[in-house]
């Protein structure tokens, strides 16, 4: 499929470019009117908690996040800490937007038990002072933001690689494998004989990117092999890769080579799922 020429990511990329101007800058894209409805997304991730606010046209208004380790593979391991952080993010957002935030949406990874998983996420969101409108599956949120009706969305976050296949708006396959950015960090820590906190800093410092990428390449290849196995019966294109762990210039070429078909990525891929979650708050 010649989807590259179709520029399918133009719309999402425009929104991501708007959003990135305000992320953690204590300001908003614009101030909302007193009565206009707002949409709030809460992404309780393995490496951070992200709060996004959209207007009723799904245009980004505000985004803030805080790094945190209160969640592991979609399971909340420190409830009080998650609530404290989210309360704080909510308060910051309300000050900047000069509006109270009433409702919000959350999300869970596809493999987490939807009953108990969404209950815990709802509890965190409500304990932080929101009314939780719904808890959606993370890949469904990502696909909503990317406006993908048919295709494969691969979300590579801190703890997991989630692969979701959509056909005509229906989720036909979901795989969630415990390989993510944390595993890249551990490989770097092993290679340099340093602790994982130091390795995490080095991983994000892009001045050493070529050397670092060489070390983590087998992890990237493993993620691509997992994705290729999911596609062995039928390939649903486009294949769009999102999530914070893919922030390396050689990631997509390496991934595409193993896959045997071109994968594509949006700008600022770690904000795709949080924006999709906010779109569900309506
Ligand atoms: N500039 C960067 N370079 C390399 N890796 C990065 C960069 N920024 C973030 N990461 C990595 O991305 C991962 C976090 O991605 P993301 O925010 O999508 O995860 P999450 O949603 O918190 O986790 P999960 O979806 O697994 O629960 C971390 O492992 C982090 O080290
Ligand atoms: Mg995530």
Structure report:
The strands form four sheets. Strands 10-9-8-11-12 form a five-stranded mixed sheet, with helices on both faces. The protein has a three-stranded antiparallel sheet with strand order 1-2-3, with helices on both faces. A two-stranded antiparallel sheet has the order 4-5. It has helices at residues 10-20, 79-97, 114-127, 138-146, 181-192, 196-204, 209-230, 251-259, 272-279, and strands at 39-44, 48-54, 60-67, 71-72, 75-76, 103-108, 131-137, 151-156, 161-167, 170-177, 239-242, 263-264. By secondary structure, it is of the alpha/beta class. The chain has two domains: 10-143 and 270-279, 2-Layer Sandwich (Nucleotidyltransferase, domain 5); 148-266, Nucleotidyltransferase, domain 5. The chain is 40% helix and 23% strand. The longest helix has 22 residues, at 209-230. Helix 3 links the parallel strand 6 (103-108) and strand 7 (131-137). The radius of gyration is 18 Å and the shape is globular. The structure holds adenosine-5'-triphosphate and magnesium ion. This is Putative ethanolamine utilization protein EutJ. It comes from Bombilactobacillus mellis.
């Amino acid at each position: 499929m010649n989807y590259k020429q179709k520029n399918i990511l133009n719309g999402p990329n425009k929104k991501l470019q708007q959003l990135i101007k305000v992320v953690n800058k204590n300001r908003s894209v614009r101030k909302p009117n007193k009565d206009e409805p707002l949409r709030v997304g809460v992404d309780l991730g393995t490496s951070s908690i992200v709060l996004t606010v959209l207007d009723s046209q799904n245009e980004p208004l505000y985004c803030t996040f805080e790094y945190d380790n209160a969640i592991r593979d979609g399971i909340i391991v420190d409830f009080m800490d998650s609530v404290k952080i989210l309360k704080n993010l909510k308060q910051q957002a309300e000050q900047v937007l000069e509006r109270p935030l009433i409702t919000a949406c959350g999300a869970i990874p596809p493999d987490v038990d939807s009953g108990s998983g969404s209950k815990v996420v709802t509890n965190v969101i409500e304990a932080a002072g929101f009314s939780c409108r719904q808890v959606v599956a993370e890949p469904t949120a990502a696909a909503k933001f990317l406006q993908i009706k048919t295709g494969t969305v691969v979300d590579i976050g801190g703890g997991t690689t989630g692969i979701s296949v959509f056909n005509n708006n229906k989720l036909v396959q979901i795989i969630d494998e415990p390989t993510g950015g944390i595993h890249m960090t551990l490989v770097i820590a092993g290679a340099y004989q340093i602790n994982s906190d130091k390795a995490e800093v080095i991983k994000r410092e892009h001045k050493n990117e070529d050397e670092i990428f060489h070390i983590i390449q087998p992890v990237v290849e493993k993620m691509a092999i997992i994705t290729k196995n999911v596609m062995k019966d039928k390939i649903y294109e486009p294949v769009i890769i999102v999530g914070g762990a893919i922030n390396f210039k050689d990631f997509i070429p390496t991934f595409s080579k193993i896959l045997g078909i071109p994968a594509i990525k949006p700008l600022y891929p770690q904000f795709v799922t949080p924006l999709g979650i906010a779109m569900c708050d309506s």
